[in-house]
Write the structure tokens for this entry.
Amino acid sequence: MWSGKKCSDSAAGTPTAEEEVKVVLVGDTQCGKTSLVQRFVSDTFIEAYTPTGFEKYGYTCTVADYRVNFSVWDTSGTTAYDTVRPLAYQDARIFMLCFNVAEPESLHNAAAKWYREVRTHGGSAPVLLCGCKADLRHDKETVAMLSKLRSHPVTSEEETVAMLSKLRSHPVTSEEETVAMLSKLRSHPVTSEEVSTAAIRLPLVLRNIS
């Protein structure tokens, strides 16, 4: 299937260059991939679930002096497509790892299964973690159902931790923020030795001033 839509963020003028961008969506079955694509390419929302095989959509957007032609690939999350799904990953410029906010297990799969799959077959293209069905995060029925299972909708903090843990990293601490900023300034955090040296020199400085 191919559908197209055009938009423009430029006030006037004709684009002088074109850019081709292939976007591939992956994730568990019924996690919201198709609804996300439809919202993007046609500004519509599909409530009824229809099984997906491989669907391809087109979207053209003019930004400044560039005409960006998006090729959006919606893939199936069923195991029946595990061997053929990676064929869609060729030449992808970015992957969107989708999960259902109301199904914590789908977030686990995004990191444990889908990230591994796109890294194995999709090269080094950037990966974007995308939580779908976010409106269910505060839905009373959803919260009550998950509560019975001793669970809860995925929070934004859990999204970050899940992806960072897969990358063998961790949320940035205040100390790391300081070190990163100081490194840009070609400096470093104050060491205990520097504190001792400053304590020794300070009386001498004050004596000279007086």
